[in-house]
Specification:
This protein is an alpha/beta fold. It has helices spanning 11-23, 63-70, 86-91, 94-114, 147-166, 188-197, 217-230, 247-258, 262-265, 284-288, 297-310, 312-315, 321-331; strands at 2-6, 28-33, 53-57, 76-79, 119-124, 170-175, 177-179, 202-205, 211-216, 236-239, 244-246, 266-269. The chain has 13 helices and twelve strands. The strands form three sheets. Strands 3-2-1-4-5-6-10 form a seven-stranded parallel sheet, with helices on both faces. It binds 2'deoxy-thymidine-5'-diphospho-alpha-D-glucose.
Amino acid sequence: MRYLVTGGLGFIGSAFIRLLVAERPKVEIVNLDAMTYAANPANLASIAENPRYRFIKGDITDPAAVAAAIGEGVDAIVNFAAETHVDRSILDPEAFLRTDILGTHTLLEALRERRIPRYLQVSTDEVYGDVESGESIESSPLRPRSPYSASKAGGDLQVLAYRATYNLPILVTRGSNTYGPYQYPEKLIPLFVTNLIDDASVPLYGDGQQVRDWLHVEDHARGILTVLERGEPGEIYNIGGGNPRTNLEITRRLLAGCGRSFESHVRHVADREGHDRRYAISSSKAHALGWRPTVEFERGLEATIAWYRENESWWRPLKSGEFLAYYQRQYAHR
Ligand code: DAU
């Protein structure tokens, strides 16, 4: 078996590749990654020399790069490649439309031409938009409210349209907020942990009462593998952690884990524009395939804090150059 994994140098994609290498000895992996700012070869340093793994630098919007990565053929494409940070999409939406919509289209065209037997689109619970009460199921309406989530929803709709029109063997997963080692330090948990380690303040948006459902990255990767192997073609599967927490609760836990106080280290800043208050998904379809998250949230969070403490050499170089320019643009005026 040969799988083409796109965006495999990113946070969730690299966890998925590490899982494949560890647990699927008959699978060869081609990783096509454009190496944007959030990609990091260090995420796969532990398996980079494995003979079953091959890396190709290239963009999913480029049909020639996709063709080269498919080569003689692959048994599946798993598309992790995406622009993913909501705040960046508010500052600069164009890259999101390119990668998340046009890139998906390029992969789907390859799927159609090459008759590849399976395609999995890694998507997000953000496509359902703000969920005031209850839980979104896979057939719930899409109500994306940020340029990021609208671009992901656009990708999902392309994938579903190729199913309806060309009867292609596609699957979609919609994951909830993911945390764990190797996450680029722009997102809530790694940003706050690394700031706190450095004795810097953390910028909490608005009243901090927004709710996210937290999923450990290894559980997320395993959920995607379960859907790839056991999902019904044409179907969508929610993959949620089952750990709803307010941002305030997360912040308090991170402060405690890093030995810092709320009064001295929390900076209340202006809310995110169009900020979704709550995401909540039902994952019973994925549960029916035999998948369940296994990492207990409080333990997973503690282990994540410990990982960032022990792996400064991984994240410290990232918090310079491009990141500092972004941080300034994003937070200085708030
Ligand atoms: O729900 C799945 C989605 O989760 C993924 O599709 C996205 O790729 C991923 O970025 C994440 O989106 P969020 O916007 O929920 O994640 P983020 O870590 O940016 O923010 C989590 C919450 O924390 C959100 O309510 C905004 C808040 N926040 C975030 C940052 C970066 C702050 O209060 N301050 C901050 O500085």
